[in-house]
């Protein structure tokens, strides 16, 4: 446990030192969403219709932007091989790293989302549905994304490959998340969609750490 | 009982057979010097010995037990110093070493870390981000682990003398002899001539096409 605590502290202080780099996905998220009212026109009903989809697509894209730094620096400076040799269970260590990544690069997106919901004329029930889907859904992005980062970290130019690998995998999540917000806009129950996203989250929480650990070991060869 | 031994080890990298049928055995208090030209597979051999990479065939034993089955026991008794230093550029030397010790279950206090850095001639540089130190100073920071994890039974060192100045080489050589005479085992590669006043086993790898 001591080793995992040390890893958590180190990753948090590393994130703090590199906060300029962490701001980039957040600014990208805000800018992409501000482009839509300008491009599509300020008509409230149109914006309300496309709003949830826009926010979710922007969240997926900006999470991909910051994803690579999850293991890239550690792989390049050799911290990763020292971590593998440290005796700390690698799956648990991977989970800690994913948690820090979610906390530092995705939680800010969720915190800024009320402002963006205002840009897109979302109603209050729609906004709450959006926040719930983001809170349960974005950890899936980090967990599944980390497997792909683990696999591509040994390649020199993994950036675009990463997006090509991951975007198709996130389609079901996008469908259920936007459908939940749509139901909320029609004053319908959306607990069904939330339950499915929750199931996806628990499933990836249970299996992804082992897959990430395996991917990281494979990338050492 | 040998600290580390192998049985018919062979490694293939990118369809090239680096070496096969390597049998080695390192007892406590002995020094194994792995020699060979560039590309002969020295680093690959060391990475296989640490367990980072699986060999094509053959087995690595730590105290007569397969390393895959030793788990934490092997990890707590090994220090690996590779080409990549394993220090983060944005953290200071002290932060890096404190994290490394915590994650490797080594109990040290901050004072010990400062004293070790002093021995390695890094006084005044303890709290600066490692990225702004010179190459040799960064390597000294990483080498401080050899002082901090004093109870390890085995050191695997890949080119530890690279980028060190004369004084650094002397400090490290003295430390190696001290460690060996206290019963530690060392596996080392070096392109500089290894001039240690200590009996040395040699293993020479040939470059194969």
Automatic annotation (TrEMBL), chain A:
InterPro entries: Cyt_c_biogenesis_CcmB, Cyt_c_CcmB_bac. It is found in: Cell inner membrane. The keyword Metal-binding does not apply. It comes from the Bacteria. Pfam families: CcmB (PF03379). The chain crosses the membrane at residues 21-41, 53-71, 106-122, 129-153, 159-181, 193-216. It is a multi-pass membrane protein. Keywords: Cell inner membrane, Cell membrane, Cytochrome c-type biogenesis, Membrane, Transmembrane, Transmembrane helix, Transport. Required for the export of heme to the periplasm for the biogenesis of c-type cytochromes. Belongs to the CcmB/CycW/HelB family. This is Heme exporter protein B. It comes from Paraglaciecola algarum. The lineage of its organism: Bacteria, Pseudomonadati, Pseudomonadota, Gammaproteobacteria, Alteromonadales. The gene is ccmB.
TrEMBL record, chain B:
InterPro entries: AAA+_ATPase, ABC_transporter-like_ATP-bd, ABC_transptr_haem_export_CcmA, P-loop_NTPase. The keyword Metal-binding does not apply. Keywords: ATP-binding, Cytochrome c-type biogenesis, Membrane, Nucleotide-binding, Translocase, Transport. Residues 4-209 form the ABC transporter domain. It holds the Pfam family ABC_tran. NCBIfam families: ccmA, PRK13538.1. This is Cytochrome c biogenesis heme-transporting ATPase CcmA. The lineage of its organism: Bacteria, Pseudomonadati, Pseudomonadota, Gammaproteobacteria, Alteromonadales. The gene is ccmA.
């Amino acid at each position: 446990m001591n080793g995992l605590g040390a890893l958590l502290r180190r990753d948090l202080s590393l994130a703090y030192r590199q906060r300029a780099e962490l701001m980039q996905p957040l600014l990208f998220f805000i800018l992409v969403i501000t482009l839509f009212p300008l491009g599509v026109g300020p008509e409230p009903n149109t914006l309300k219709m496309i709003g949830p989809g826009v926010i979710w697509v922007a969240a997926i894209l900006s999470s991909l932007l910051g994803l690579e730094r999850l293991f890239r620096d550690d792989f390049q400076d050799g911290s990763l091989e020292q971590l593998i040799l440290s005796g700390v269970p690698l799956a648990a260590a991977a989970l800690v790293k994913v948690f820090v990544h979610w906390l530092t690069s995705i939680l800010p997106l969720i915190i800024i989302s009320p402002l963006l919901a205002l840009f897109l004329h979302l109603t209050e029930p729609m906004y709450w549905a959006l926040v719930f889907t983001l809170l349960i859904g974005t950890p899936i992005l980090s967990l599944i994304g980390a497997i792909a980062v683990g696999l591509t970290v040994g390649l020199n130019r993994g950036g675009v490959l990463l997006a090509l690998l991951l975007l198709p995998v996130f389609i079901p999540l996008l469908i259920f998340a936007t459908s939940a917000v749509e139901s909320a806009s029609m004053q319908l129950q959306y607990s069904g969609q939330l339950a499915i996203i929750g199931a996806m989250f628990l499933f990836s929480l249970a299996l992804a750490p082992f897959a990430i650990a395996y991917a990281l070991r494979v990338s050492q060869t | 009982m040998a600290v580390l031994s192998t049985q018919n080890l062979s490694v293939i990298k990118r369809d090239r057979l680096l070496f096969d049928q390597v049998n080695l055995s390192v007892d406590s208090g002995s020094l194994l010097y792995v020699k060979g030209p560039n590309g002969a597979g020295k680093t690959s051999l060391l990475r296989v010995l640490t367990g980072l990479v699986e060999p094509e065939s053959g087995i690595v034993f730590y105290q007569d037990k397969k390393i895959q089955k030793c788990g934490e026991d092997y990890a707590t008794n090994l220090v690996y110093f590779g080409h990549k230093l394993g220090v983060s550029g944005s953290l200071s030397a002290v932060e890096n070493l404190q994290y490394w010790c915590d994650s490797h279950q080594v109990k040290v206090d901050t004072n010990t870390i400062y004293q070790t850095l002093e021995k390695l001639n890094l006084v005044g540089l303890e709290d600066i981000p490692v990225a702004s130190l010179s190459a040799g100073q960064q390597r000294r920071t990483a080498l401080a682990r050899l002082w901090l994890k004093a109870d390890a039974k085995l050191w695997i060192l890949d080119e530890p003398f690279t980028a060190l100045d004369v004084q650094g080489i002397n400090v490290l050589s003295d430390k190696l002899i001290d460690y060996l005479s206290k019963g530690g085992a060392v596996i080392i590669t070096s392109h500089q001539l290894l001039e240690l006043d200590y009996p040395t086993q040699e293993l020479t790898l040939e470059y194969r096409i």
